[in-house]
Write a structure and sequence with these properties.
Number of helices: 3
Biased composition (Basic and acidic residues): 42-63
Organism: Haladaptatus pallidirubidus
Helix content: 10-25%
Number of strands: 9
Radius of gyration: 23 Å
Region (Disordered): 27-86
Domain Blue (type 1) copper: 86-159
InterPro entries: BlueCu_1 (IPR000923), Cupredoxin (IPR008972), TAT_signal (IPR006311)
Strand content: 35-45%
């Protein structure tokens, strides 16, 4: 008879299944749906200054984050306004950069007409910290707000068609 230990069919299937699962999971380490923006943000931090020009970041919008409301900083059309309406063009790329002005936790959500988040930034609770989120505007966008202060930090998104 043969003195070598035999592998049962069950053991062979377990080993094969584990190997397949590990292989499948190895391909899943890329971005999850909905997190593309934060990966784009990380990518832009790793590029040289010449690579991350305005064509890659899109049009820039700057806001300040305070519990009492978003503060418009740029472009000029929103500067100094509380919870300014953001005028976006579907298909255009934008980068929203916001700065925490009060040390409270904030996170920017841009939502559709059903109040479902379409774009999310990272959160920040350290005063002075800035967060940037790059996205392409779509016809779905309706409003933006802070996840933690949705009543006082909420503004409209106005969609503008190409002229």
């Amino acid at each position: 008879m043969n003195d070598q230990p035999r592998t049962s069919r069950r053991t062979a299937l377990k080993v094969t299944g584990s190997a397949l699962a590990a292989t499948a999971l190895a391909g899943c380490t890329s971005s999850l749906p909905g997190n593309e923006d934060s990966n784009q943000e990380s990518d832009s931090k790793n590029k040289s200054k010449s690579e991350s020009d305005s064509s890659q970041k899109g049009k820039e919008i700057r806001l300040g984050a305070k519990q009492s409301g978003w503060e418009g900083r740029a472009p000029k059309s929103i500067k100094g306004k509380k919870n300014p309406a953001l005028t976006l063009q579907p298909g255009q790329k934008y980068t929203i950069t916001w700065e925490n002005l009060d040390g409270k936790e904030h996170e920017l959500y841009i939502v559709n007409g059903n109040d479902k988040p379409v774009v999310k930034s990272e959160d920040a609770e350290e005063k002075g910290k800035t967060v940037s989120t790059t996205f392409t505007a779509s016809k779905k966008l309706a409003q933006y707000y802070c996840e933690y202060h949705p009543q006082s930090m909420r503004g409209d998104v106005n969609l503008q068609q190409k002229q």
